[in-house]
Specification:
CATH architecture of the largest domain: Up-down Bundle
Strand order of the largest sheet: 1-2-3
Number of domains: 2
Largest sheet: 3 strands, mixed
Order of helices and strands: HHHHHHHEEHE
Helix content: 55-70%
Number of strands: 3
Radius of gyration: 25 Å
Strand content: 5-15%
CATH topology of the largest domain: Alpha-lytic protease prodomain-like
Low-confidence stretches: none
Length: 288
């Protein structure tokens, strides 16, 4: 899929997800306030930050889809990774707010007013969240979009949070109101884990971690006629846009023209065997 088309499709997915998250957060917040349930309000906050992350993602994709220019010769794709870190910061902020509220609820125990309608709303929201997470994960893998995959993890933690709230409500109905703040703390933990996963994924790209196993590239290069050895292999970027640098050694008596042909064949062979390669820089050295 073309670079611009990929970002357009990712934006469409985020807009659909945004609308669904707004619906879910509004339902949880409204009925959570009616029930006076901290765990349900915390769950609503989680869904609300899902919406915020979608907005951040849309803005980031707008910048990331811009073509390379003189100031950014490698393009603007890392804006997407910066956005995922922004999502992670929002996740950690949500986690902190929920923990604060849960500690306060332990000090002043309040009995939530839970009705059958409350359960119906939670099950409805849970169904929407499951569908949204699966849709985002599927599209994220298809488009190789880090921001969609990161956001699907966030939505996935919303699923676990909703299940925790439902479980807590059952226990509260059985006469254990203390489970309301306990479930809220569990939700905070789930949110924190989700944030950690996002930071770990994004930091690899931002820190130029290796994308392709150097051994795989070496094997491809050595299968090209004229290449005697291959070393100093470096890769960076993402699975969808990988940049590769390597050194190859050839016969010292080879002409410049023929050496160029060898490097060109190496480049073509690597792009044939490895998907998502954007650019390859090959340095030619004489073999000893």
């Amino acid at each position: 899929m073309a670079h611009i088309d990929r970002f357009k499709e990712s934006s469409k997915v985020l807009i659909i997800t945004l609308l669904l998250n707004i619906l879910v957060s509004a339902l949880k917040l409204f009925f959570g306030l009616i029930a006076n349930s901290l765990s349900m309000i915390a769950d609503a906050m989680h869904s609300l930050f899902d919406s915020s992350s979608n907005i951040i993602g849309l803005v980031a994709l707008k910048f990331a889809s811009m073509p390379p220019d003189e100031e950014h010769p490698y393009g603007h794709q890392k804006f997407e990774n910066f956005a995922t870190l922004g999502i992670a910061m929002l996740i950690f902020l949500t986690c902190f707010e929920i923990i604060q509220s849960a500690i306060g609820r332990f000090q002043e125990m309040i009995q939530p007013n839970i009705t059958p309608l409350t359960f119906y709303i939670l099950f409805l929201c849970l169904t929407i969240n499951i569908g949204t997470a699966l849709y985002e994960r599927k599209k994220g893998n298809e488009l190789n979009s880090g921001i969609l995959i990161a956001d699907s993890y966030h939505t996935g933690s919303d699923i676990l949070a909703s299940i925790s709230v439902i479980t807590g409500f059952i226990l509260i109905k059985l006469g254990y109101p203390i489970f309301d703040p306990i479930i809220a703390l569990i939700i905070a933990g789930l949110i924190g884990i989700s944030g950690y996963r996002i930071v770990k994924r994004s930091s690899k790209t931002l820190c130029d971690a290796s994308v392709v196993n150097p051994t795989d590239i070496e094997k491809i290069a050595l299968n090209v006629a004229g290449v005697r050895s291959c070393h100093k292999i470096r890769t960076r970027g993402t699975d969808n846009e990988t940049y590769i640098d390597l050194h190859i050694r050839i016969d010292p008596n080879t002409t410049v023209e023929y050496g160029h042909r060898i490097s060109h064949r190496v480049s073509e062979r690597i792009k044939e065997k490895i998907c998502g390669v954007k650019d390859i820089t090959i340095h030619i050295e004489p073999s000893e």
